[in-house]
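Aim 2, interim progress: modelling of the zinc ion-bound target.
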Amino acid sequence: MNCPRCQGTMVTDYFLDMEDSGDVWMSGWRCLSCGEVVDPLILKHRQAQQAQYELVGAISKNPANKTHAPVAILSRKP
Ligand SMILES: [Zn+2]
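Predicted structure of the complex, ligand included:
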């Protein structure tokens, strides 16, 4: 696995689980170059976030979805 931040080499490491999920230690990956830490929960959240960005991007690029024009902000002068 390569580091998502610097593309460096990541190694398996063990971290203290502060969320108290039952396991005291959990395994994850640590970058040897920059120290970036990725554990399975972080990875899951990032993948979900990425999927959401891709979905929003696909919807906004689809010409069929142009029916929702940007809302104009109208202000009244006093
Ligand atoms: Zn790195």
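The mean pLDDT is 82. Helices lie at 40-61.
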